[in-house]
Design goal:
The protein is built from 5 helices and 8 strands; from the N terminus they run αβββαβαβββαβα. It is an alpha/beta fold and about 170 residues long. The protein has one domain: Endonuclease, Chain A (2-Layer Sandwich). It has a 6-stranded mixed sheet with strand order 5-4-1-6-7-8, with helices on both faces. A two-stranded antiparallel sheet has the order 2-3. β6 and β7 form a beta hairpin. The radius of gyration is 15 Å and the shape is globular.
């Protein structure tokens, strides 16, 4: 169920042109994985450049997302996350990656209209294998909107306190 939630929510972000806030991805471990199966070109309307490509990976999605809005990635200096950070697909304008200190334990995805938080690392195992517990907050009522607004304040504060060097 997590893969389907991520695919749905992250596809929606490509359509949100009314809100220019950045999207944050925070996880001590990051790796690439198939985000959209795209078996029948179902994401053709959202990302025409993926036509006939088959599965769309998380890194390719981030490269496409960076064309529409700022992408901010926070991770730890783990071997897995360093390999992820070296992906040529992530070396595009609009994607900024920062390594937090070794105590980073924050895990979440924050974007316009939603916030996903919980135990899930943004890795293949976190999305497809492990029995992670996550909570999905949507801006469908005042409670959801308030949670997202508070999360944006907190993520922005943390972002500003992390050294920008890759």
């Amino acid at each position: 169920m997590i893969p389907e939630l991520l695919a749905s929510v992250l596809a929606m972000v490509l359509l949100r042109i009314d809100d220019e806030r950045p999207i944050y991805f925070a996880s001590p471990w990051l790796s690439d994985f198939v985000l959209f199966r795209n078996e029948c070109d179902e994401f053709l309307a959202v990302a025409p450049e993926f036509a006939d490509d088959g599965p769309i990976t998380f890194t390719r999605y981030l490269g496409r997302l960076a064309q529409a809005r700022e992408v901010r990635i926070v991770t730890a200096r783990t071997e897995v996350s360093r390999a992820f950070a070296e992906s040529p697909t992530l070396r595009v304008p609009g994607i900024e990656l920062r390594f937090a200190d070794g105590n980073l334990h924050e895990k979440g995805i924050l974007g316009p209209g939603f916030y996903i938080e919980g135990s899930m690392n943004i890795t293949y195992r976190g999305v497809y294998v492990n029995g992670e517990k996550i909570t999905y907050h949507a801006a469908v009522d005042t409670d959801g909107s308030a949670k997202i607004a508070r999360a944006y304040l907190e993520f922005a504060r943390r972002w500003e306190n992390i050294d920008a060097a890759r």
